Amino acid sequence: MRYKEDSTPSLSGTSMKVLHVAAECFPLVKTGGLADVVGSLPRAQRRIGIDARVALPGYRGLSRRLEFTRTVASFDLQGFQLSVTEGMLNSVEGPEQRLPVYLFECPELYDRAGDPYRDAEGNEHPDNALRFGCFAEAVARFALHRGDGFSPALVHLHDWQAAPAAAWLSTQPQRPAVVTTIHNLAYQGLFDYRTFQQLGFPERWWSPQAMEFWGRCSFLKAGIQFSDAITTVSPGYAREIRTPEYGCGLDGNLRARAADLHGILNGIDTAVWDPQTDPFIAAHYTAGDVVIGKSANKSALQEELGLAVSARPLVAFIGRLADQKGADLILAAREELLRLDAQYVVLATGDRALQEAFAAFAEAAPTDQVAIRLLHDEVLAHKILAAADLLLIPSRFEPCGLNQLYAQRYGTIPVVRSTGGLNDTVVDADTAALAAGRATGVHFRDADVGGVLYGVRRGLELIADEATRDHLRQAGMASDFSWLRSAGDYRNLYRSLQETRPRGPLAAD
Ligand code: GLC
Fold it and tell me: 322: Cβ below 6 Å to ligand 1?
């Protein structure tokens, strides 16, 4: 049986066909929030009648995790042959929520140990420009190809790894509409001129109006300059990236395209992140029994991690060890943090130097007060969100951030630096918000030791009062972070492009 025959009727025939293109998609391959979005947005779109599908590089072992696989196309480019495997990705929610996926396979480029960007030792693959350049070019060809595949009306590119497809598509008069979503402007895919030439980009794209960026080639800039619309993952970040402070050198280009730049808040997969059914946590709970539920999860986690089993407040950090996330500020504040009446748990991986510094912190700190796990562990992340009282997010910038959304759903109170999507999704417990019953967490202003200490102290002070703690938990758990609203926003954007988009190359070409 081929899946096409048993797909639900609302998705067949006239529904809008959209191809999402990305380097990651949960649960197939994940290093960060990008994967969660690419794993959940297309499913939410399918629920509202859009035929959304996903294109990914065919990393090692992925095709075995799909069902009903078959080869639907192949392309020769840059001396490589890429073949496209179509298959279905199962969902925890049953067969109606299966997602069609296209794997762009080429063993020399993608069948490797490690994660999408690094080898098993943590070193970046030296040929990432070629790997993602070929992927993006092949996706553009696939989107135009009228064979036994899928002809999208709209191609939705995510981040730098997919963005060159916008440039390739722009040269085609009969092309689909193109949207590029910026999940993080700090990662642009910057390469030298030689690489630009090797990838076969036309010479005219070596221009500040196209892909040239201060003497280098920027993959992401292709998405900004050549797409019909650009989105980013929160309204706050959409404003910030038009300023020199947050614009990573592209603020001028983004200001020039301000009319086509939209901030659409990420949603979360509420089936994967649900304390009522989460298979990874020790005790299930709802808003009605959150106090008992969280304390059971806390004892279980304390035991598992070797922390003292006690009612002491538990403060957590989960995230990448990168400058963006401000984990270094936790290290810088560690002595003062240890003096507070709290336990700490850190689940993080990333920069080698930071990883070593956290390992040293773990060595020196009392093991019954501090637990540090330097790895990517999805199951442990669920357990921590169910167990912790506060989730500290000291980001220097944050396009959206998903952990504060997961935290609120699990009754864990976020303590966040007020920036980007954190600002948009956590309501600070100031007097007015507390009085109105709207407060869900704590904001702090400065990305420094003082800011972090202020935030953690304020969080501890608030939860020391049970009524205030319960208010913050309840308001967080009652917030709706599902994709329902944002999936509609994307649909409206898609429709506006279908109606008004001029056929043919953009002015930038
Ligand atoms: C990136 C951003 C993060 C965002 C995620 C998904 O990881 O850093 O803020 O939530 O992408 O859009």
Answer: no
Could you tell me the pTM of the whole model?
Answer: 0.93
CATH number at residue 429: 3.40.50.2000
Name the percent of the chain lying above pLDDT 90. 91
Atom of ligand 1 nearest to the CA of 32: 7
Which of 25, 34, 416 to mutate to test ligand 1, by most ligand atoms within 8 A of the CB atom? Answer: 34
Determine if ligand 1 sits within 6 Å of the CB of residue 33.
Answer: yes
Residue 509 has pLDDT above 90, yes or no: no
* 507 pLDDT more than 60: no
Within this chain, do residues 218 and 313 fall inside the same structural domain, yes or no?
no
Distance 365 CA to ligand 1 centre (A): 31
Residues 6+ apart with CB under 8 A from 130: 78, 109, 195, 198, 199
In the sheet with 343-350, reading across from the earlier edge strand, the strands are: 370-373, 343-350, 314-321, 390-393, 413-417, 442-444
**How many Å lie between the centroid of ligand 1 and the Cα of residue 145?**
31
**Pairing verdict, β 216-218 and 212-213:** antiparallel
Residues 295 and 371 in one domain: yes
pLDDT bin (cut points 50, 70, 90) of residue 500 is low
Residue 9 pLDDT class (50, 70, 90 cuts):
very low
From the CB of 400, is ligand 1 less than 6 Å away? yes
d(CA 223, CA 229): 9
Confidence of residue 274 (pLDDT cuts 50, 70, 90): very high
Is residue 5 included in any domain, yes or no? no
Residue closest by Cα to atom 7 of ligand 1: 33
Q: Which residues of 372-388 are buried (b: 16+ CB within 10 A; e: fewer)?
A: bbbebeeebbbbbbbbb
38 lines ligand 1 (CB under 6 A): no
350 Cβ closer than 6 Å to some ligand 1 atom: no
**Any domain includes 39:** yes
Question: Has residue 280 been placed in a domain?
Answer: no
Structural domain count, the chain: 2
Mean pLDDT of 441-453: 98
List C-alpha distances in Å: 84 to 65, 73, 113, 149, 394: 15, 5, 21, 9, 41
394 CA from centroid of ligand 1 (Å): 14
Which ligand 1 atom is nearest residue 159's CA?
Answer: 11
Give the domain range for residue 375. 287-480
In a domain, 243, yes or no: yes
Atom of ligand 1 nearest to the CA of 401: 10
Q: Is 183 in the pocket of ligand 1 (CB under 6 A)?
A: yes
